[in-house]
Queue: 3 jobs
Job 1
Amino acid sequence: MFYGTVVWDPWLIVAQIVGIQCLYYLTLGAFLTIFVGTRVSRMTLVYFFDYATVTASTATGWCVIVSILLSAVAGAVYLVYSIERAKKCLDFSATLYIIHLFICIAYGGWPSSITWWAVNGTGLAVMALLGEYLCITRERREIPITRFRSNYWFIPHFDWSSQFYVYNMDLIL
């Protein structure tokens, strides 16, 4: 199948969404442990999902903000290796942050903090734009083509099972 052809595979899409969501929360947990875990006596899910912890008025709040933004950068790298297409980066980034919004609403209610919206909106933009940039740079790399030896020939034949011409590389001695 060619690179540009699209096959509708909903199970693959769901698996990619779940995988990216899990990697995002693992990364967020690692950054929160590094930055916030040294400042508080007990790490809880409050720092993941409660909008009140995302504040610019305390040092711990700034550590939460930095953790969220660094997780967005890591999420962009995850998009490169799991999605591999620049035009899908915005879709998967928005899906991740919409799911995160629903989890935050279920955990602590509607986020009424402007800081929470600004930080998560910035995280969404960073993840989508950086992911697109990294995917485009990866897509634009040259494909290495090795030279075939002179005793190899492409011999086309018709494959009746798939009804397409198939090119086999047969050794001519």
Job 2
Amino acid sequence: MNVAPFPARKPTPSLQSSPAGPMAESTSRPSDVGAPGSPERREPPGTLPPPLLPVTTMAAASRLSRRGAHVISERPARQSDVSTMASPELERKRKLPVAGGGDPAASDEEDEEERWVGPLPGEAAQAKKRRVLEFEHVYLENLPSASMYERSYMHRDVITHVACTKTDFIITASHDGHVKFWKKIEEGIEFVKHFRSHLGVIESIAVSSEGALFCSVGDDKAMKVFDVVNFDMINMLKLGYHPGQCEWVYCPGDAISSVATSEKSTGKIFIYDGRGNNQPLHVFDKLHMSPLTQIRLNPVYKVVVSSDKSGMIEYWTGTPHEYKFPKNVNWEYKTDTDLYEFAKCKAYPSSISFSPDGKKMATLGSDRKVRIFRFLTGKLMRVFDESLSMFTELQQMRQQLPDMEFGRRMAVERELEKVDAVRLINIIFDETGHFVLYGTMLGIKVINVETNRCIRILGKQENIRMMQLALFQGVAKKHRAAITIEMKASENPVLQNIQADPTVICTAFKKNRFYMFTKREPEDTKSADSDRDVFNEKPSKEEVMAATQAEGPKRVSDSAIIHTSMGDIHVKLFPVECPKTVENFCVHSRNGYYNGHIIHRIIKGFMIQTGDPTGTGMGGESIWGGEFEDEFHSTLRHDRPYTLSMANAGPNTNGSQFFITVVPTPWLDNKHSVFGRVTKGMEVVQRISNVKVNPKTDKPYEDISIINITVK
């Protein structure tokens, strides 16, 4: 909204005012001059004013007054009138602008007006009425309103593009070249088909205006064309160059389904038959001098708009009009428009979108400003500043987020600019053309372009950075009979239950999920059992390994203290070399599994053994139940005393029993898993190894027990 002060309006001249200058008296009582010295006549209250002179008569009177003549009136002239005309100096002052008419009954006010020299202030401007969009609440009912996303679905890699077709399909594309088709149903979506579309990164995707065709281009120098309704690949074009942008540039009824692609490193645009071969129908080699950033079709006026990195915006037509400048726009020279706005600001459009009626063109610039143009005239209509400095100032004026969260989001925004991911953010119109939606650091903004107001923000509480948006509005179509007017007017409860399910589908920065905002809030977002994040992909081997390693530090440690009835034994553990063995020992220790176990076997000059809950040397199991495999490492040997190792009954039969040596025992290498060393309390180990034992069972006569084991 323009907040600059409006210029003051000039007073509207009355029909009775003289062309030579404003009248000294009120226009409702014209000043008439009689013979000099005539007495002043005052009408009694309630008397109607004398009839006004017609315009021609007043003009003639003005001319006569300038010549020094007297105009004969129906009433005698007042003394003030005579004195006014008798003075040339006052006559000169009377020709100055007048701020307002005087009171003919008050001569002192007339004198004050006659003494006014210089320009007078104009009338105060009336307060401008606030713009109101009629039926705004009805339009908002058909837009998502939930503050948090309801569902999210997965790809194997980061999702970069999303599109919604008029045929109720949602198409997502990920960084690894995969494309997925989803079908919008009455509530939510369902998976349809999965394509490995490209061998590399997908650069751009496009959906035709009627929603029948879909294409994608990637860095493998290929274009893939899909039939949306039948969700099938119907064509493949080898381009021979690295494509940048793509767009269907045909309208329903055209003979050729033409598609435009640009070369990523130059300003060339190639036009192909989407159902034909890889021979271009036309090439624009001089339309743009810099690499293109956007190609978009306005299907209402059948005009294509393209933009490049130098900030230049061009209008052109498709195959039916021989790729010439359109004749249905209201400008011929670009200097008559505001299309040089980006070049002046040293920015370029990273996203272009058209309203459903084709009359508005919304752009999202690399300088983070939203500009809305009138399409036919090219004139700038609105500008919204979404720069980081604006958000910082807004946070200082009125806190939008907690300071720590605001700092985290600002860091994400700077990373966006660093990796040039801002180009993936887009702007879209709703079906009415009165609202635009785009992602910001605060969430998805819904802006009313008629009233210049931010109506709502979706996802402000979420910790994701929304990027590319697609909007579904209305009711998902089913293969059934059309609903007639009579059916609509009936009180059929089945038909009344069919409600619109407006949904915003968005991607997020560095996320392999796409998110759906609807009118329904999620049931429970804090519970671990929350099912709003659907795991529709099996985790890869790398993800499994990462999850295992991430889980490791929570369950394992690198040191422990064994508290025995004869003293404490401090041990160092090796979780990196023997992760499973150390995890088994640490979890058992934390769970109190070893508490109260006796040292059931002691061989003097060899080792002490424990960890059997039965105390016989025949029991014990691992934390996973049963036994687990050996873990041998080349750096962990029985080459020194006070080595902590696993007891077993053969290969891969480890359970819960372990032993500590008191001498080097190299013959045990690669037979028992070494997972620790004693660092303190060696004398305790020696004292235990020297107690008297039964020579047949090696069990001490007096029980030596483990009180507990502390894992640090």
Job 3
Amino acid sequence: MKKKAVAQPLPWFRILLALAIIGAFAYGLWFLSTSNTSKPEPLADKPESVKAISPKTNELEDQSSLPVLEEEQWEFIESLPNYSVEVDIEEQQVSQRPYLMQCGSFRTEAQAEKLKAEIAFQGMEAQVLESKGKNGIWYRVVLGPFDRKREAEKGRHQLRRANINNCKIWFWN
């Protein structure tokens, strides 16, 4: 036996909510378009304001009797161009061991060669090294040797921009 599809009731709550939101939005637009379109009245028309301004004019007369400020002279404007600072820079320590950057380790040589080709498109030369361990043969994709870690970091950042991530930098064994 097939059951007849039951007609679902109309979602009145959602319809009313949508109409209320649309109505509130329309009211907000109408309110913003009609609010404060007239200019405010000038303050000078009121007699109370004139009385409040008159004491201030006396203050302005008092300020005119103040002594004149002398022109300021700044010493640092002349002394700054001749100023120099000596900074002691320590020499970078050069490592006795070279660095290598490993970007991948794969079970198949084809995967390693694919990554090597992607690295070659970035203008860098990679090597595929075969490693035999207790859990089988691995094909490692490495770059280097680098004399300084900074050179290896520069290469790693270049590869990251090409979306080749997970490169690690270690000492060359």
